[in-house]
Amino acid sequence: MLKVALVLAVAIAVQVIAAPAHISPSLKQSLKTKGSVNVFVTLKARPSIVLSRINSLSFATREQRLITLGASLKQHAAASQESILEFLATKQVTVQTFWISNQVSVKNVDAELLASLVARPDVLEVFEEFSVPLEQPVDPKIVQKIAENEWGVKIIGAPEVWAKGNTGKGVHVANIDTGVRYTHQDLKDNFAGDYGWFDPYFGTATPDDRSGHGTHTMGTTVGKNGIGVAPDATWAACRGCATSSCSLAALLSCGEFMTCPTLADGSNADCTKAPRLVSNSWGGSGGQSFYDDIVAAWDAAGIIPIFSNGNSGSRCSSVGSPADSGETKVIGVGSTTEDEELSYFSSVGPSVYGQIKPQIGAPGSDVRSAYNTNDASYATLSGTSMASPHVAGVVALILSAHPDHDFAQVTELLYSGATHTVASTGGSCGGIPDTEYPNNYVGYGRLSAIGSLP
Questions:
Q1: CB-based contact 226:281 (threshold 8 Å)
Q2: Which one is catalytic: 325, 365, 385, 452?
Q3: What values do phi and psi take at 268, rounded to 5?
Q4: What are the φ and ψ backbone dihedral angles of 452, each rounded to 5 degrees?
Q5: Which of 106, 159, 332, 453 is 20 to 30 A from residue 288's alpha carbon, by CA?
Q6: Cα first-last separation, the chain
Q7: Is 288 exposed, middle or buried (0-12, 13-18, 19+ CB in 10 A)?
Q8: b/e string for 38-66 if b means 16 or more Cβ within 10 A?
Q9: CA neighbor of 129 nearest in space, from 99, 102, 104
Q10: What's the pTM value of the predicted model, to 2 decimals?
Q11: Catalytic residue flag (residue 385)
């Protein structure tokens, strides 16, 4: 750790010597209109120097890697934020720090303070706080649970994998969503308990869900009684989204929780409790890099990020962020129907970076899963929000069979096992017709658990 600390100290000093901070025109306009604004300050000492160092090292165990990663990121942020926090302590503002992205949230910033922040040599950028939309489900319906196994679970061949003895046991998964009704009959038995819940909005001690969205998505990943793909995996959750939107502060807090979990009150961090994957059914417009630092940290931690592609329809390059992340390892997921067609709402690629997106399609239309109304309630929802959890479940099954697989090895199995059974739309995006694979409609094909784990 001492050697890592010395390297980081030198790197921080070098990074601070750079160009003046960037400030967006929209922030200036908001300040002029409102008189004060809530901002995020990004420091020049980027966490990428920590991640590069961690990725260059060998560790005997994942636990050692997680501990070193968490400690190094926190040390890096503490050292580089010390000066600006001393400065802000003299101002009448509310401050929140984030070690995973080396950013500081500052409330009620006036023109004078903004000018001072922008002029600081350690500041890279100042931008106004924002929220990211939750991928809203299409055509929600409260229903009864009547199928032995839901159609999405069946069509991807999950029961065939279960019959071989693989139900996801030994794998710890997580989602960032609206929360989870943890007492639901199909979710209560595999909740992780301690280190399994964090709520940046309300500070609740145990999981709850005031929307239903997060309960539904978690049910599809790990729910019992035929609604979930990996019913014996354990789960954790973080409330990154209140109801219809997700504040950047909450999403960053959840990113930290996934990288180095704490108890529900934020105490007693234990990075060894980090999940193997995080499913995310939220996102904003394409071409944004606001979550790249978090996804890069997850990659260093051996956490596989899965993001819904968006519900903006089949117009080329409608994929949202972070599913379209250009420089980080992300599985983007599109939506398919029970009739093996592309869902009409499923966003497609290519990304603004020219990448094929999504990487894979999965059941997302008329998906029945657990809901938040009571402990035995269910709902049918549609959206790429419903597709991403199916992929998360299959990734859990792959990791149960191959515990030491990394992102590249998992995705090789995931993509090579996908079927080419989705009907053609006749479309072509990015110069690739949807009859060729991978394409910008369903990527490498439609998800198949049995294809990936024959």
A1: no
A2: 385
A3: 55, 55
A4: -80, -25
A5: 106
A6: 43
A7: middle
A8: bbbbbbbbbbbbbbebbeeeeeeeeeebb
A9: 104
A10: 0.94
A11: yes
CB crowding 233-244: b at 16 or more within 10 Å, else e: bbbbbbbbbbee
Distance of alpha carbon 358 from alpha carbon 342, whole angstroms: 12
Looking up tokens 């005997």, which residue turns up? 60
- Tokens at residue 100, please? 């995973």
Amino acid at 297: A
* Catalytic residue status for 177: yes
Query: What does pLDDT average to in each consecutive run of 10 residues of the chain (454 residues)?
Result: 45 52 82 89 98 97 98 98 98 97 97 95 96 83 86 98 98 98 98 98 98 98 98 98 94 98 98 98 94 97 98 95 88 98 97 96 98 96 98 99 98 98 97 98 98 98
Alpha helices in 184-247 (DSSP H): 213-222
Number of H helices, E strands in the chain: 13, 19
Q: List beta partners, residue 197.
A: 237
Q: Which of 122, 177, 199, 208 is catalytic?
A: 177
Secondary structure of residue 106 in the 3-state scheme: strand
Question: Angle between the 48-56 and 62-88 helix axes, to the nearest 10 degrees?
Answer: 160
Cβ atoms within 10 Å, residue 444: 21
